[in-house]
Amino acid sequence: MTETSSAFLSDALRTFRGYKKRAEAAFAQLRREDWFRLIDPEANSIAIIVKHMAGNMRSRWTDFLTSDGDKPNRNRDSEFVLDSSTTPEQVLQWWQQGWELVFAAVEPLTAEDLARTVTIRGQEHTVLEAINRQLTHYAEHIGQIILLAKHFRGAEWKSLSIPKGQSAMLGSAAELANKARRGP
Fold it and tell me: Which has the closest alpha carbon to 124: 182, 47, 62, 70?
């Protein structure tokens, strides 16, 4: 069990880092105004999604093992409102601070910690369940960020994975590389 638990923690960290990296690759393609654009009046901008994620990260990962993951000083509703003076630099600062808390909480965990109990909004979760909860939550928002960034950039968008129409070409390159490694 310990080997599987250790593998889970390594994979969770790899996944969190991957989410962060993919979103940052999308951020790098944004124009200043894209951070705050809405696709409709009820939608969230990329900046609002980041503000919400950072608020969630602050609440969930601060004192992760010892206090409820929904901190009494969190004002979730305010995460969906931006001050008119908000800048992309400020949004990126929220982003970095949030991820620092994630990694500071998850990196020191041990396989034995996964069975420990933490609370979120007064409900008990194992540490494993709490991590899975956040992996899922962040995946949803990273997908939203990428979708919005791609929408705003249109034809100028640089794919974060395999570009359309290039799957077969990349597949052939991978086959050739595998054959080269195996030899004649």
Answer: 70
